[in-house]
Amino acid sequence: MILHGSSISPFVRKIMLALAYKGISYELQPLNPYVEKELAQKRHPLGKVPVLEHDGHNIIDSTVIAHYLDDLYPVPPLYPGTASSRAKIRWLEEYADTRLTSLIGGVLFYQKILRGKMLNKEVDDDAVEQCLEHHLPLALAYLEEQLPEEGFVGEHLSMAEISLWSILRSGWMAGLRLSNYPKIQSYMSAIEQEPWIANLISEEDHELSGFYCKPVIIGTIATDA
Fold first, then answer.
1. Among the residues of 81-194, which ranges form H helices?
2. pTM score, whole prediction
3. How far is CA 103 from CA 47, 96, 116, 135, in A?
4. pLDDT < 50 positions in the chain
């Protein structure tokens, strides 16, 4: 298996963790869709990552890839439990991939790290402020309500944990701190106890720590939707 993408992408990180969880060997082939646009479009019709190359096929979209891996290697499952628990896992994966990624990846990480630190371009401080003070608190308040008091969403670690951690890790790099959201903070800490996730944290810290932003503790009250 060859995984095309960059680990700095939460979607690529998500599949790296899914592969690690299942103990599947693979090769990471670096592909930055911002820089290598033409090559990315050859792999993916929308020019995105990740793309999983396997047995002569390109499997695209992180959620599609996750289901593909479960079809090939059903143990341990990425979507465990009953039909209702699997539905909850799939919804939280979707929430991570859409709502949280649009705010954390599309605003905080993009503005503060990609533009501000990696590209040395001007940061849209108004967009960052609106995200931190209004939009993101609402999104996190909803997530806080959805998480269990302890443990994981399903019978064991699943794509819910992998997907949520992957994007919240990008937020952490951009300075996001969640001490005002105790359930989320405890949930993230439990996930990080997994050795294969701790290994990725160590690798990212070694490679990317120079781009990390000053911590900001986000509030819990949003004054506007």
1. 83-95, 125-130, 136-146, 159-173, 182-191
2. 0.92
3. 21, 10, 16, 8
4. 222-225
